[in-house]
Amino acid sequence: APAAAPAGGGGETGAAPDSAQKEISIATYADPRNEWQRTVAKAWAEEHPDVSLNIDEVIYGEMNKKQQAAMATNTLWDVSFSGVKWFPFLVARGAFVALEDLIAQNDPGMDDFFSAGLAGSSFEGKLYGLPYLMHPGNPALIIFNLDLLDQKGLSVPETNDWTTTDYAELAAAASDSENMIFGTNLMPGNYYDHCSFARTYGGDILDDEANNFTFATDPASVEAARWVTSLRTEYSAAPNRAESEGLSFASGTMATATQGTYAVRSLDETIGGRFQYDLRLFPNGPESPRGYQAFVECFSVAAQSKHPQEAFDLVVAETSTQAGIDSVLNSSNQPTARKSVWEAEEVASILHPIFQDALDWMSNEPGPFPHPSNLRFQELQDTWANTSPDLFYGDVPFEEGLQAVQDACQEIMQLPRP
Prior knowledge:
Layout: E1 11-13, E2 22-29, H1 35-47, E3 51-58, H2 60-72, E4 79-83, H3 87-92, H4 100-105, H5 115-119, E5 122-123, E6 126-127, E7 130-135, E8 141-145, H6 146-151, H7 164-174, H8 191-200, H9 219-233, E9 256-259, H10 267-271, E10 277-281, E11 295-301, H11 308-318, H12 321-329, H13 339-343, H14 345-348, H15 354-364, H16 377-392, H17 398-413
Parallel strand pairs: 2-3, 2-4
Antiparallel strand pairs: 1-3, 4-11, 5-6, 7-11, 8-9, 8-10
Helix pairs in contact: 8-9, 16-17
C-alpha cells in the first residue's frame, strides 16, 4: 500500500511488520471523542496478522488538504475519512474506488444504513464510501429553556406535531428585548441550513440536478425565507444584528434555539445546571413535514490501494453496528450512521428520547446533502455567508435581499468544475 501521508497527529502500528505482511494505512479522526476509530483499527489489525496496519490521526479541518496533497504524491492512505462538504470533489479527482464490487463480495448489511447517509457517500450514482456519521443538520431540533418559558407562563409543545407558525408565536411570546431576552436566534448562516427550512416548506435550495440555486425561484424556498425573516421583522422574536453579539442559549438569554443531534449528549455540561431544558424536533411546515439535510462523514478505500479488499474489510469494521454502539457507550457521541445503532437497547436506554424521534424521522424522510454539481461548495457557502445576513436581519427590503442572494449564489453555480 502507499505510505501514509503526513498526518495531523502521530501514527502507530497495529501489528509488528514482517516481510510477508501486507502494509495498509488508515487515517482516523484526531479527536478524543473519535478514539473509538483507533480502537476498532487496532482490534482489526490483531485479527489480521497478515497485515501491518499504520494508524494515523488527522485533524478534521486539515483533512481535505492532506488528502489532496497525498493524492498528488501517490501516498493517500488505503483508508481515510471524508466530510460531505469536500468528499465529492475528491471522488471526482479519482481519489477513491467505487465500492459496488467489493460490497458484492463482502456485504456489510447495506439496508441498515440511513439512505441519506449512503447518498452522502455517493457520487454520480456510485458509492465511494460507507458512512460512520450522519445527523440531520444544524437546525434539526429546537431546545427550550424551561425556566424562561415558565416565567412567561409558556410551555413546550406536548409532541413533535407542531408547526413553524407555532414556533414563531411561542418565540415572540417569550421575548423580552428590553431585558435582552429573546425567543430565538434562528439564523441560517449556511446555505445548507436554509435547505432544511426550504424542505420543511416543501421545496429545496438546489434543483434536482444540483445545477441551479433555487433560493428565490422555488416558491416554497421563498416562503421559508420569508418565515425566517419574519422572526425579526414581524414577530420581534429574535435579535437584530447588533443585539445578537455575544448572545448564547447556554447563558440563559434565549428561550429557544436550534440544536443539532450531535450536541445533545453534551448539553448538561454546556448548560452547567443554569436552567432546565427540553427538546423537540424542528417544527413541521404549514403544509409539509419537517425537512432536513444529512451531514455525513464516511470512510473510503483509496483508488491507489494495493490491497483494496483488506482496506474495504477495515472500512466495514469501522462502520459496523458494534463499532457504532461502542462509540456511544465510550464517549459523548450521538449514534452512528446505522439504524441498528440507534435502535440498540444499550444505546437507546442512555439517550434522551429525542434520539428515537430523530430515528423515526430520518428513517422515513430522505435528506440528501445539497452539494452543487460543479463541486464549488466552499465558494457557494462563502457567497451565502456574505450576502444573506442583510436579508434575514431585515436590513433591506425582502424582495431586494432575496434577489441579491439568489443572483450572487447562482453566479457561483454557473461556473465550471474546478
